[in-house]
Design brief:
The complex is a heterodimer of chains A (77) and B (390).
Chain A: E1 2-6, H1 11-27, E2 32-36, H2 39-44, E3 52-55, E4 58-62, H3 68-76
Parallel strand pairs in A: 1-2
Antiparallel strand pairs in A: 1-3, 3-4
Helix pairs in contact in A: 1-3
Chain B: H1 3-19, H2 25-63, H3 66-70, H4 79-88, H5 90-93, H6 100-109, H7 114-126, H8 129-139, H9 141-165, H10 167-170, H11 190-207, H12 219-245, H13 248-280, H14 291-298, H15 303-315, H16 323-332, H17 337-346, H18 352-389
Helix pairs in contact in B: 2-8, 2-11, 2-13, 4-7, 4-9, 6-7, 7-9, 8-9, 8-16, 9-17, 9-18, 11-12, 13-16, 15-17, 15-18, 16-17, 17-18
Classes of the chains: A alpha+beta (77), B mainly alpha (390).
Chain lengths: 77, 390
């Protein structure tokens, strides 16, 4: 599984990355987490707003910090 | 941060500590000015102006649905709506500068195109609530108003010009799926949201109500005498609204987001105030940079002074809100009102690092056109403002 956290590096993006990392660790799912900070890379996903989370190429959340329960539902499937 | 950069910073601090003649009179005076200016802000502006403004910014972020604004930036949105929304959306969307650039790239690549994207890029940092409130409070309401009006107008003009100049390229945009933030279910009507915001803004206005000139009577003096009673009354109304209209989760979000702004902005603003104090001193007090330099560069209202202010504003990087104390120092040292507005209009929207990122998104030619348009518009606005206010 490949999870990308899109955000140019503000507080919210860092919090999102932290939540994702912790959830993955707690769930024990094998996942590669990548932080995308380049603005052009972010724009390629067509997200209007950051932080955004992309799981296996699918945009899961835009413009908010997802909580751990929410992240858990994305990586469990 | 790279290890090499850390080393460079440590070396610079070391060299400064080693070499600067700290006991020289001018340096001592400058150091004192830095703390005096910080004290002025702490005493005059933090409790009555900044704290309420942070709560308003927090409320906007949490209670105004971003999705409802962003849908006007889609590829199929009506152009007139796109421009009008883009020109004022900074108030809603851009309180955090980290959202501006990705959103700009998104609108440019997938959404409504270069016009609305550049309009948004310009208006974003320029019309946010905190910046306008602080400008009006510290530099005077005339300049605050001129900044707000100028920013909204410029956003539309710049966007239209960009769309006109590069109308051929716009057709070549990639079309693809766009993702907007989720529209959240709310238990309130628009009317209730508007009343809530209005109450917050009124609290800010009355808490920060300035003492009228001594001996003046009439409505302003009466309001000043009653201002704490009015503020207290409004706070009670606010409390009732919060209790009845909002669920616990929303209230927690509001406080969290306000706290987010505070911890993000206060340190930067404090540092900016001290730097401005050290370099320029409080109005009427001299510090490190002699006043005649400032007066010869940006004093009066000449074309050169306005142009110089616009260009240096466009290149300089201002952390959120720090443009206000810096301008306060500059104006105290003899900067003209026109050049001050030029700098305010060109400054926060553009900076050298910002220009580089924009260049990466839309190429050198368009970025150059964007910067030149803003510099020219800011210079014109500055000169006109300087003429009007004398």
């Amino acid at each position: 599984m490949e999870i990308k956290v899109l955000g140019p590096g503000c507080l919210k993006c860092e919090q999102t990355e932290k939540n994702v990392k912790e959830t993955v660790q707690e769930s024990g799912v094998a996942a590669k987490i990548e932080k995308v900070t380049d603005v052009m890379e972010i724009a390629k996903y067509g997200v209007f707003g950051t932080p955004a989370v992309v799981v296996d190429g699918e945009v899961k959340s835009v413009g908010k910090i997802p909580d751990k329960d929410e992240i858990m539902t994305w990586i469990k499937n | 941060m790279k290890e090499r950069n850390k080393l460079v910073i440590i070396l610079l601090v070391f060299a400064a500590s080693y070499a600067i003649p700290w006991d020289h009179n001018t340096i001592r005076q400058s150091g004192l000015e830095a703390f005096m200016m910080l004290r002025d802000y702490a005493r005059e502006h933090v409790l009555t102006c900044l704290i309420p403004a942070f709560f308003i910014a927090g409320a906007i972020e949490v209670f105004v649905s971003q999705a409802s604004v962003l849908k006007y930036f889609g590829a199929t949105a009506k152009k007139i709506l796109s421009y009008s929304v883009a020109s004022v959306s900074g108030t809603v969307l851009a309180v955090c500068s980290c959202t501006v650039l990705p959103l700009f790239a998104g609108i440019y690549n997938r959404g409504a195109g270069i016009g609305p994207a550049t309009a948004f890029l310009y208006s974003g940092p320029a019309v946010n609530v905190l910046a306008i409130v602080l400008t009006a409070r510290i530099l005077g309401w005339q300049l605050g108003l001129a900044r707000a009006i100028g920013a909204v107008l410029f956003a539309i003009i710049t966007g239209r010009l960009m769309a006109l100049i590069f109308r051929k390229d716009d057709a070549a945009r990639t079309v693809g799926q766009i993702y907007l933030p989720d529209e959240e279910e709310k238990g309130r009507s628009l009317m209730q949201d508007a009343l809530f915001m209005l109450t917050l803004v009124l609290i800010l206005i009355f808490a920060a109500f300035a003492r009228p000139a001594t001996g003046s009577t009439g409505v302003w003096a009466t309001i000043f005498i009653a201002k704490w009673y009015i503020t207290a009354g409004l706070l009670i109304v606010l409390g009732l609204m919060l209790k009845n209209w909002f669920v616990k989760e929303e209230r927690t979000h509001w406080v969290q987001s306000t706290w987010g702004f505070m911890k993000q902005i206060f340190p930067l603003l404090g540092a900016g105030v001290m730097v401005a104090g050290f370099m320029l001193g409080r109005p009427g007090h001299s510090a490190l940079i002699p006043e005649h330099y400032i007066q010869s560069l940006v004093g009066g209202n000449s074309l050169w002074a306005n142009l110089f202010a616009s260009v240096s504003g466009a290149l300089m990087y201002f952390a959120t809100l720090t443009e206000v104390p810096i301008l306060q120092g500059l104006m105290g040292a003899g900067m003209g009102k026109g050049p001050a507005l030029s700098l305010l209009l060109a400054g926060p929207a553009l900076s050298l690092p910002n220009i580089l990122v924009i260049g990466g998104v839309m190429g050198i030619k368009k970025t150059a056109a964007f910067c030149i348009i803003i510099v020219i518009l800011s210079t014109i606005a500055g000169m006109s403002y300087g003429l009007i206010t004398g």
